[in-house]
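User: We ran a pulldown and think these components assemble together. Before we commit to crystallization trials, I'd like a predicted model of the whole complex to look at. Sequences follow.
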Amino acid sequence: MPGNITGRLLRLASFGESHGAAIGGVLDGFPAGIAIDLAFIQNELDKRKPGTASFSSARQENDQIEVLSGVFEGISLGTPIAFIVRNQDTRPEDYHEISKAFRPSHADYTYSMKYGIRDYRGGGRSSARETLVRVAAGAFAKLFLSSKNIYIQAYTSSIGPVEINQNRSEIRPEQAGLNALRCPDPDAVVKMNAYLDEIRELGDSAGGTVSCVISGVPAGLGEPVYDKTEALLAQAMLSINACMGFEFGTGFKAATLRGSENNDQWDWPEDAQENFHLNTKTNNSGGIQGGITNGQPIRFRVAFKPVATIQQDQPSYTTEGENIVLPAKGRHDVCIVPRAVAVVEAMAALVIADLFLQHKALDK
Amino acid sequence: MPGNITGRLLRLASFGESHGAAIGGVLDGFPAGIAIDLAFIQNELDKRKPGTASFSSARQENDQIEVLSGVFEGISLGTPIAFIVRNQDTRPEDYHEISKAFRPSHADYTYSMKYGIRDYRGGGRSSARETLVRVAAGAFAKLFLSSKNIYIQAYTSSIGPVEINQNRSEIRPEQAGLNALRCPDPDAVVKMNAYLDEIRELGDSAGGTVSCVISGVPAGLGEPVYDKTEALLAQAMLSINACMGFEFGTGFKAATLRGSENNDQWDWPEDAQENFHLNTKTNNSGGIQGGITNGQPIRFRVAFKPVATIQQDQPSYTTEGENIVLPAKGRHDVCIVPRAVAVVEAMAALVIADLFLQHKALDK
Amino acid sequence: MPGNITGRLLRLASFGESHGAAIGGVLDGFPAGIAIDLAFIQNELDKRKPGTASFSSARQENDQIEVLSGVFEGISLGTPIAFIVRNQDTRPEDYHEISKAFRPSHADYTYSMKYGIRDYRGGGRSSARETLVRVAAGAFAKLFLSSKNIYIQAYTSSIGPVEINQNRSEIRPEQAGLNALRCPDPDAVVKMNAYLDEIRELGDSAGGTVSCVISGVPAGLGEPVYDKTEALLAQAMLSINACMGFEFGTGFKAATLRGSENNDQWDWPEDAQENFHLNTKTNNSGGIQGGITNGQPIRFRVAFKPVATIQQDQPSYTTEGENIVLPAKGRHDVCIVPRAVAVVEAMAALVIADLFLQHKALDK
Amino acid sequence: MPGNITGRLLRLASFGESHGAAIGGVLDGFPAGIAIDLAFIQNELDKRKPGTASFSSARQENDQIEVLSGVFEGISLGTPIAFIVRNQDTRPEDYHEISKAFRPSHADYTYSMKYGIRDYRGGGRSSARETLVRVAAGAFAKLFLSSKNIYIQAYTSSIGPVEINQNRSEIRPEQAGLNALRCPDPDAVVKMNAYLDEIRELGDSAGGTVSCVISGVPAGLGEPVYDKTEALLAQAMLSINACMGFEFGTGFKAATLRGSENNDQWDWPEDAQENFHLNTKTNNSGGIQGGITNGQPIRFRVAFKPVATIQQDQPSYTTEGENIVLPAKGRHDVCIVPRAVAVVEAMAALVIADLFLQHKALDK
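Assistant: Here's a predicted model for the assembly, 1456 residues in total across the polymer chains.
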């Protein structure tokens, strides 16, 4: 099952190498009858576009999406939605010297060992350019989810050692879009920018974390046992380039808490008499219990490592065993976390939309 | 896709409620010709058995596995391996009072909202008793992997606030089996036991973390993009009851590091001249780059929350909105982390065996 | 994807060798809240039981089903339904001489070539005894479908050269249960019995066809392109032991017709004004157009070859190349067609129930 | 699981409406290192092109394939192979009057009932134009199979009532390419052409059958139980537009034979002493026993109904219940059987290549 297709009822088949003719995807299982706002889709893509801030790659990616099928007179047909983005501003000559060498902490070596062949131009299929496909598909999923009043908001919660205010009540995730770092804490933004300036001058790179809140999810969504909501979210997040970890609710901190601290007590909402449902007084469970949603916001956090490409000479080996030095060059992000915000949202949207459809199949 | 079947080429179908007639599984895709040591399988099951230490549930689970198919004269046939374990020592009367109420941070409420019906006896399908199926199936996977010289070793790396020695070179994971806490650091074991005694007296519960090392995995295993090795491991781990987080390699800490700190430099092994392969000088990548293994040990860590059932009265609501108090009773673990070690190993074994077969399909 | 698991949203994992400890299945995705009548399930199993007529094997298969999970107080839980049937009256000694030889037109040789090992007792996994699992799972699917007013009726439409009345209007499929041959045409039954007596005296075997009608299926069910309703039915039927062909609607005869003869003209039902739908004046399409149901009865026909085991000496070879003669013995059916009627119904029920759930997922 | 993705290890995601911007596919799981001859791919596409003979549609489909990914310097990368074909010569105005009516025996009505919306232009997604995607993907599969010495040859075996010589030994399937009817029997070709001339003058249409031989398949391929080789072939064939039936080996005729007539006796090949394998003296099993290949050629036959669009006025209804007459017009084939030959081959290639990879995963 070569991993370029994901999802169960809503499935995305992704294709494309970084410097090939085009990248794109086929989204099968998208419900019929949804209004498709192409400007919204393009706007989502623009959010992950590099080159819009000083911490980003200078590669020009004026990525224009072309939808090839599945939409008729502005409405989804229920048939596969295919889309492509032509690759532009490719500079394969930048990569010639790595055609027989292996960059540290990239996938050059592992792809060579797996396939016996690789497209060395910009990492080929292993390039984070593939996340463009995710964002496009996720934008369609968002259109479906918003028709069900489900909304997804991710934001930068740390860059390097700089974290946002840990008092969650003072954070407005929806303000993430106000700055290029996609961080809703203005004080942190100042510090993050200073840190990134420092890192750039060192020719180094930075990691960080992205947090995400999904609101409007009804209780009862998700599947049990192996396909728990958090399990599918974890797979989706760890599949993003450079992702190193996932936690939901109290996450890793839960390991240090006591049951009496971590348990969420039930609350009886005023309107439960007419239409039975319960709330929780806290949301340490991150909106999920036993793999199934409880109606509270789903909350999770994702860790990204620093970009492997740095503006420093790095030693390596060729396939013939020659010890060489990979020079500092190329067009790369100092920190991909702000661009990853859009990718986290997109993957979350695909997972939740898929679970929504799966739930519908078995619901009364 | 109701989530009781997992895997791609090696697939496990799991069944059973905590207090039903039996639980068990069907393992399809297990290769033919592997010697099946039933004593080994039973021994793996015994590792997750409760009641063997003071922090464990007093429920007697003398779980004897019966293999119903797939093995002929001690050798796997290539046909599905089915196994069952009869449920014993069930006390459904313990659960009568929760039949119309919802325990905090359990799946009682979410299952009711999803299915409109639930087996309230011991949590029914949402019970961690299902992990027995995983351990049994994982034991078969281990037999296959050991025929390929791949070995999996997990261990308790923290309980509550007590962590093991962070100097990895002083830890011998294979010593995890020497004590009931399955912790390879004797100093930490003393502190963990003291902490658990304290928690038990408070009628409370504790969480913790489990770390895991997979050795012998050749370079080139794993699938790209959506089914990256770490993504499938993350799904597998987050599907375990009470799991709240997953990280691999430098994990969440990577978010605070610089690229120059986190990158793994290549090393040229002496025997690479004859048979090309590379090593890394460090293993911050946790054995995986671009989703595909690089031949170094796979390393990951998993967080478990404290057990939701505690020996303290907890308020709740019935379906009719009656505000009730759930009394402190029942037979439950103070901390499931030591028992979860076997489950983490089993899920890792299933994932890696599956990826091994998938790789073989496309390998030359 | 070793083929022991089938289905998409409603999935069946099957296990068991003919002479192993037990055979059984796990049915995942069965909706919650359906009343489960175990007597009905057992009665369905009895329909495929051998030994009830002179054309059947003398092997006693008093197959008693045990349901291990998924049903609580007579209602389905939405969790996996596992069931087993213990194998009884096994006589492995009957099969010793084929342990190193290959019966003509059986799977002995192909299984040996595939797996390098085989359970030679009664064909092991390749035995038609596995169809018991299908009938049990299909019985659950029928319970679900009847709650939606969908009904499935198959019947013997030919045995050897003896065919039923081709005037469809004179056939009442629901009368199939009135005789052991499961044939609704009393005149044909007389001729079929005479033919089977003749074949039995010759120590030979007979094939035949099974026809099937599915009524009550709403228009709009089924998936397009690769998973057309007829495509999934064809896979399901061809997966039954000894099945050699499938056709629906006018089937192979359609290849000889003209478009003007084969097209189904539309009809406007009286009640279409309130609730739009159309009928067809003929049903040459067998209830399916473009892979999707049109509301007319689904009609298809399946061909079964004569049983490969016959009461005549047959030459063969051992793995060492010794030319041997397999003697005429063993307990086998002269014709499995009447028993296959239950299997055809069961597989049809699984396919339609699965498509029903899939449709629900994407329906408004 | 909306059915636009097929396959297990080798998966094809198909997209595109008949008169949309483009149609195409993504082929995931194609092995790395295979030389890709684009001229061969284009030539396969040309085989299904209409307009090359008098029985074909006059629509100009100068379909030029563009490969967007997965091939680097003429070699497959192991990454997804995406390809598109732009739709040209579309005349949506031809279809305006069916936008609110339903053509007999087309999918207009069923798609409307399923999706609540349809692209009425040329049948939209239900158009046989989608088979172009299959032929392109199948061409890639053929390149892989030929590297394993596996070859697939289909041919027209009947058109309307005209059948080819039933003496199989006098038919050379590889001569199918010598005429536009893709029929290897010159005598039958004459009669078929005469029959088609007659049908065309009547403004009617004809059906027919396609036979297929797959040679070079090693013994031991295929999966047991639900995914038998014949079951996957049957699904693949019945998924082709207008296909009404499938049979393999002796097929429907087997239902009339006796076991002693239908069984294939084993034969001991001269070279079996060194490398054990068996032949059969006849091939009534069509190369498959118990779902798994036995090393003999795989033989099957597929029935196609006459084209539903005919050059005769046909009555129908609008969604408002208006009784209208659909006039005879449009550009359509009198008989699609000769064009279906390429589609049958392509689907067979995809199935066998997929089974080849699946077998490899579990083979020693």
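Chain B has a mean pLDDT of 93. That may be worth checking against your pulldown data before setting up trials.

User: Thanks, that helps.
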